[in-house]
Every structure is written in C-alpha cells, then in structure tokens.
Design a protein that fits this description.
Layout: E1 39-40, E2 48-57, H1 62-74, H2 85-89, E3 100-110, E4 118-119, H3 121-128, E5 136-142, E6 147-148, E7 157-163, E8 172-179, H4 186-189, H5 212-230, E9 237-238, E10 269-270, E11 277-278, E12 280-281, E13 287-288, E14 293-295, E15 300-302
Parallel strand pairs: 2-3, 2-5, 4-6, 5-8
Antiparallel strand pairs: 1-9, 7-8, 10-11, 12-13, 14-15
Helix pairs in contact: 1-5
C-alpha cells in the first residue's frame, strides 16, 4: 500500500493538548514489511467504556456522516453477520487490559469553517478541546475542501493526547484527526479505492459505500482509533522509536485480505449486486473494508478474510 505511518512531535504551550509523538498515517513508497513484534512499553491503554466525541469540520452530507456513524456504531454491535466490524475491533481486546467499548457521545457540526479552510495542527487541537474530555476520544473529521498541515504530504490521519488541566496528570485525554482525501490525495489516502500515485498500478477496488473519499476516511479512522486505544500516550504497544513507531494497524500497512503484497490489498469479498469490495459487515446493512490489525497473541497481522 502507498502509505506508511509516523508520529509528529508538537510543542504547545498553555492548556493546549500535547500531540502524541506517535501516530500519523505516514505516506511513503510501497515496501514489503518484515515480520514485526510490537513491544508493550508498560504505559496505560484506553480500556473500558470510552465516549467518542465527533467534530465535523466543514461540509459533510447527511449520507457521508451516516457512513462514518454506522461504522463507529458497528464496532461494538453484535448484530452484523460475520465477518463483522465488531469482530475486527475485538482484536484490541487481546492487548492488555480487556475491552475498549466505544460509544458515540457529543457531535459538533462546524459547517461554517470557523477557523477557515486551511488548518494548522494547533488549530486541530483547539477544535478537539471543545468537546468533553473525561473517558473520551475526541475526533475531528475535516471535509474534502479543508487543507491540514501535513495532510497528503505526510499523513492521512493522526492521533495524540493532551491535558485538559496541565497541572493534573489525571486529566489526560486522547484525540484523533482524519481528513477526506477525495479531492486532495485519493491516490495516497483513499487507496485501494483509487489508483495509487506511485507503486504497482493495480486497478482500484470499488468503494463499498459508493464514496471513495469517505470509504477511505473509514480506513484511516479505523487505523487511528486502533492506535489510540493501544498506544494512547506514547508508552503502549508499538515497535521502533517513539518518534516513528509502528502501531496496531500501521504495522500491517496495505493488508486487507489474505495474500496481500505491496500494491495488492489481498483477497477480499465482493458484493455481487454492486461489485464493491469489502471484508466487514456492519449495522444497517453496511459493508466496509477494514485494514489488518496486529494480533498480540499470534504476532501476526490479522485479517477478517
């Protein structure tokens, strides 16, 4: 796959959160990854009931929002037939500490682009600070016409952490950001639903929900959420240096089904009616394509199909 992940170290002052030094979806040439073992660095993981607070920045249609909301609601839903998005998320239970149950909380619509259409990382952090911080992951989702520092050039999404009260270490909270790449860099951040910008030129897959940008966002959102709960504060599970770690999903880049190799997503399911590719069933009849996740019990990249 045409993506590699890395973390960006940011130094901020005052009460602004301090970004994680570890979880951007970094872009690079397609390379064959050697077998990996993610080391546990003895830090806290995000376990138990976690509230997902969403800030929609810019113009998202109701259809686009429903694609992402159905994905998030599916992560803890037992109602979808196998292979399911919930069974994909259950791999996070194999990391120390038990289950991570995600529940939708506050949603903020910022359709008027309150900070403009070109955002710095510090502005992203200002946005996540608007939502509640207790036992939560605050997520900013930026629309297709919003440029963000490093978007496309080095990352498709990222996660980090900060303190709602700098004097209270118990006030630490996690956040994430993902952007819609459809008009800025679909070849990097919406692969395999778009022709890659470099590497093997295999035909793109058909997006399961008919929206290349938002279906790509789901892949990137899945990636950063898995990284958030298993390495929220730079001392959880990862391999390599903390400044450029490989996490639960980034360690398995470009793998969606069995037999995957650079430029080929692997053998996945195909909807006979639409021709769309997927590997996860979800609520409301949705289907998604979700990336492989490293399984700490088997030390392998686990796929749903």
């Amino acid at each position: 796959m045409s993506s590699l992940y890395h973390f960006t170290i940011l130094l901020l002052i005052s009460t602004l959160p301090i970004p994680s030094s570890a979880t951007s979806r970094k872009l690079a040439a397609l390379v064959q990854q050697q077998p990996l073992t993610l080391k546990y660095h003895n830090g806290p993981l995000l376990k138990g009931n976690l509230t997902l607070n969403l800030l929609w920045y810019g113009n998202f249609s109701p259809s686009q929002r429903s694609i992402i909301l159905d994905f998030l609601q599916s992560l803890n839903s037992p109602n979808a037939p196998p292979p399911s998005a919930a069974s994909w998320w259950q791999t996070t239970e194999k990391y120390k500490g038990g289950t991570s149950t995600l529940v939708l909380g506050t949603q903020i619509l910022d359709e008027n682009y309150s900070l403009g259409k070109s955002l710095t990382t510090s502005q992203i952090i200002s946005l996540v600070s608007k939502a509640p911080h207790v036992n939560s992951i605050n997520v900013v989702l930026t629309a297709a016409d919003v440029a963000v520092d490093g978007f496309c050039m080095s990352r498709c999404g990222t996660h980090g952490s900060g303190f709602s009260n700098p004097k209270d270490k118990q006030s630490r909270f996690a956040y994430a950001w993902v952007g819609n790449p459809v008009s800025q860099c679909p070849g990097q951040c919406a692969w395999p639903f778009h022709q890659p910008i470099f590497g093997p030129q295999t035909p793109p897959l058909v997006a399961p929900n008919g929206d290349v940008g938002v279906d790509g966002m789901v892949i990137n959102l899945a990636t950063v959420l898995a990284g958030t709960v298993t390495n929220p504060f730079d001392d959880g599970y990862f391999q390599g240096p903390a400044t450029a770690p490989l996490e639960a999903v980034t360690a398995c880049k470009g793998i969606f089904g069995s037999g995957a190799y650079p430029g080929y997503a692997g053998s996945v399911l195909v909807d006979k009616a639409t021709g769309a590719s997927y590997n996860a069933n979800a609520v409301n009849g949705r289907k998604y394509l979700l990336p492989a996740m490293w399984d700490p019990q088997t030390s392998t990249c686990k796929t749903l199909v």
